[in-house]
């Protein structure tokens, strides 16, 4: 009954606040205490009892009351942080203030006139902290109080003393580095699990995430060099808990094991409070680490980025990699009992965190690629890419997966590791094949291109760039993968496809480069690919003789209108047992809009591999893929490659344009190979009456082209390069994920978000 009473009291206080036309004095504690002292309301209660319309009404009609409410709530948090919340009543007050601020802050951010409120100092008022805190903006007092409360004995950490600290001095004297929440990086002892502490940490982190979410209310702009002041301050030396908090968040995420002790159905028997904490922790990490990309030179150092970039001990790097791999592989775990193991839902946040590690910490990237452990990351990424390919609401997931593989593919070791045989049998709706991890990657990329939804077309360049980057190191492609590559080349080299967009011929250049790299550098083991090239030799002859006169171009484009791309003419074998087909999003699914994908030439720089394996950056000249007329259009992402020509309505293919890039098609190596091998294969077939391809493969396996091919070209690797466009893309994507994942309570729902749009499918 008491709970119903306290809800009623709380609701009455809210109504009073919204109906009072006169300002309520800050000194009227009897009035203000109704909001946090006498009630015990859950965060869900607060969201239900404080409707959006009423917050906006107070903001517009009695702004001084809203200002005082925020000020008084922060004041109570500061008081709680200073006293160390020794009593249950004080802890409840802190939680009530935390929930109320989580509810109100988005409505402060959505109004441009209010956005500076927390960063102003309130004349004549200062929070009762140290004398030097006088004149601190409210935002800084709030952030420091949250940081202190996250290391508060018997509230969010286990007290080392028999009884709680007696004085405020004890709280101030706590060395939070001794109270890191979980063993792992830089900390050996695992504190005992305490679900109350986990719940309290989760609520405080939710408020912290809400503070950082001001970014959602600013429109996207690639030139956005303005730092998020909340993150800047929290991750600066002003926060004495920055290091232990960063370490706590990271260790809590990487040590988490959702399967626990392996008891089937354990997640149905009891709540996992640690999972809620892990989700909030990983979200705090990705938004604080996102921050650096647009930072102003000479600005304050983001300590979270600094600490992440300096992790270097082998055991720490291993702990992070194994933790991320364990969690990303969790949804792939197969059991004989349906739904018996817990499946986590925060794989997108984990992929972003992995990306940040690879991008900010080169030691981590080299550690990942040093052994086959990288394959423990590759398989879940390929699984998610394959699973999400038909679902428009998971477009961001497709991008982050592809961007990670693009980043990894810029390193030689990644290509080398892919030669390891693929023995795992994760159920995916792909053909059953025997081969390596490289074969798996190619088969899945083929599936994405041939049966993914239309919005994935801007990623085709990225997908093929990854295959180009790994191709010089692939020792032996399977027949299935070789046929998939040739099918893509066949589909992309049809005249109507080549002529229907400014960009489409780039895809053919990429695929020819793959064939050339393998023939020149890995000929010996790649008889399957050589055989596939011989079988599909017409494709190469047609490319070499591609007509470029105006009449032929017009004829090809007319034919296009009648046919449409062949998305199904590759013979599909049966899919793997236990796999589910990729399905589109359910109608009504919410999704956040994304920024346009920057073009491949904007996000990569070319490096040439020299004899000793070192990389030399190649200056950005006009690449052979681009003709003069297309360089102007390169900045626009190829948005609708396979849709109608409307994307480039003003442009149409002409003779000069076709001739300009046709002359640069790198066909010499393949034509020489066909010239040498086709007559030999035909002769064997006639002499021995062969119709069995295994005999031909045996012949090709022992064949050689030494001295017959042109001089090998230098290996060109396109390495991922961050820029303002990708920084903005990531910011939009990260906050879109966080918006959609925080539904209980729905912190930002129905507020005036400017960074992205929320759309229903």
What does this structure look like?
Strands 3-2-4 form a three-stranded antiparallel β-sheet. A two-stranded antiparallel sheet has the order 1-5. Helices cover 53% and strands 3% of the residues. The model is unreliable at 564-572 and 626-648 (pLDDT under 50). It has two domains: 1-124 and 134-371 and 727-741, no CATH class; 373-558 and 595-615 and 656-722. Helix 26 (527-535) packs across helix 33 (693-701). The longest helix has 22 residues, at 88-109. It is elongated, with a radius of gyration of 30 Å. The chain is mainly alpha-helical and 761 residues long. A hairpin with a 5-residue loop joins strand 2 (604-609) and strand 3. This is HID1 domain containing. Residues 627-640 have a biased composition (Low complexity). InterPro entries: Hid-1/Ecm30. It comes from Pundamilia nyererei. Residues 562-586, 618-640 are annotated as: Disordered.
Helix content: 40-55%
Strand content: under 5%
Low-confidence stretches: 564-572, 626-648
Structural shape: elongated
Mean pLDDT: 87
Number of strands: 5
Characterize the main sheet: 3 strands, antiparallel
Brief characterization of the structure:
With 761 residues, this protein is mainly α.
């Amino acid at each position: 009954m008491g709970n119903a009473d306290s809800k009623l009291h709380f609701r009455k206080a809210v109504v009073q606040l919204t109906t009072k036309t006169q300002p309520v004095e800050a000194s009227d504690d009897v009035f203000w205490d109704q909001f946090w002292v006498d009630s015990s309301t859950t965060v869900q209660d607060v969201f239900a009892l404080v409707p959006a319309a009423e917050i906006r009404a107070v903001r517009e009609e009695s702004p001084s009351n809203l200002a005082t409410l925020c000020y008084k709530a922060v004041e109570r948090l500061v008081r709680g942080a200073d006293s160390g919340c020794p009593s249950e009543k004080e802890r409840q007050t802190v939680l009530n203030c935390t929930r109320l601020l989580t509810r109100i802050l988005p409505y402060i951010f959505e109004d441009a006139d209010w956005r500076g409120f927390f960063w102003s100092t309130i004349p004549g008022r200062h929070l009762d902290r140290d004398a030097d805190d006088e004149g601190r903006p409210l935002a800084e007092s709030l952030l420091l109080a949250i940081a202190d409360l996250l290391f508060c004995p018997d509230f969010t950490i286990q007290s080392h003393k028999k009884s709680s600290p007696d004085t405020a001095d004890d709280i101030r004297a706590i060395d939070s580095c001794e109270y890191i929440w979980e063993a792992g990086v830089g900390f050996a002892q695992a504190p005992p699990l305490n679900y109350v502490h986990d719940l309290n940490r989760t609520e405080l982190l939710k408020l912290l995430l809400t503070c950082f979410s001001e970014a959602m209310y600013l429109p996207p702009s690639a030139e956005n060099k303005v730092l998020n002041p909340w993150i800047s301050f929290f991750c600066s030396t002003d926060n004495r808990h920055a290091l232990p908090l960063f370490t706590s968040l990271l260790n809590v995420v990487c040590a988490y094991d959702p399967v626990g002790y392996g008891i089937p159905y354990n997640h149905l028997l009891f709540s996992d409070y640690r999972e809620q904490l892990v989700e909030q922790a990983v979200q705090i990490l990705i938004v604080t680490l996102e921050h650096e990309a647009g930072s102003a030179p000479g600005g304050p150092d983001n300590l979270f980025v600094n600490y992440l970039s300096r992790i270097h001990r082998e055991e720490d790097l291993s702990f992070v990699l194994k933790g991320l791999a364990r969690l990303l592989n969790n949804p792939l775990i197969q059991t004989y009992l349906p739904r018996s193991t817990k499946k986590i839902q925060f794989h997108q946040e984990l992929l972003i965190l992995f990306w940040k590690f690879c991008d900010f910490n080169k030691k981590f990237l080299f550690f990942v690629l040093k052994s086959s452990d990288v394959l423990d990351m590759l398989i879940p990424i390929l699984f998610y890419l394959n699973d999400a390919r038909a679902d428009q609401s998971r477009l961001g997931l497709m991008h982050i997966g592809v961007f990670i593989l693009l980043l990894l593919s810029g390193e030689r070791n990644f290509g080398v590791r892919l030669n390891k045989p693929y023995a795992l049998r994760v159920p995916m709706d792909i053909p059953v094949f025997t081969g390596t991890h490289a074969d798996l990657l190619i088969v899945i990329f083929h599936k994405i291109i041939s049966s993914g939804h239309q919005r994935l077309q801007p990623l085709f360049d990225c997908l093929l760039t990854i295959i180009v980057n790994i191709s010089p190191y692939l020792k032996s492609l399977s027949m299935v993968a070789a046929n998939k590559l040739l099918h893509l080349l066949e589909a992309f080299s049809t005249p109507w496809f080549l002529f229907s967009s400014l960009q489409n011929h780039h895809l053919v250049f990429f695929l020819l480069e793959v064939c050339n790299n393998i023939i020149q550098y890995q000929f010996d083991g790649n008889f399957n690919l050589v055989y596939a090239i011989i079988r599909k030799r017409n494709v190469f002859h047609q490319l070499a003789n591609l007509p470029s006169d105006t009449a032929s171009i017009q004829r090809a484009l007319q034919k296009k209108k009648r046919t449409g791309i062949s998305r199904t003419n590759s013979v599909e074998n049966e899919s793997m047992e236990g796999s589910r087909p990729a399905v589109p999003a359910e109608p009504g699914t919410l999704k956040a809009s994304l920024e346009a994908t920057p073009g491949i030439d904007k996000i990569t720089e070319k490096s040439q591999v020299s004899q000793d394996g070192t990389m030399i950056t190649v200056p950005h000249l006009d690449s052979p893929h681009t003709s003069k007329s297309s360089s102007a259009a390169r900045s626009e992402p190829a948005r609708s490659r396979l849709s109608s020509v409307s994307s480039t309505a003003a442009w149409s293919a002409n003779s000069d344009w076709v001739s300009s890039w046709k002359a640069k098609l790198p066909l010499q190596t393949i034509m020489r190979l066909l010239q040498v091998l086709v007559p030999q294969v035909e002769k064997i077939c006639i002499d021995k009456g062969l119709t069995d391809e295994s005999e031909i493969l045996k012949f090709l396996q022992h064949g050689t082209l030494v001295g017959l091919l042109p001089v090998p070209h230098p290996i060109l690797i396109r390495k991922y390069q961050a820029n303002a466009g990708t920084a903005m893309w990531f910011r939009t994507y990260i906050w879109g994920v966080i918006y959609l994942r925080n539904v209980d309570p729905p912190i930002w729902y129905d507020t005036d978000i400017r960074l992205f749009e929320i759309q229903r499918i």
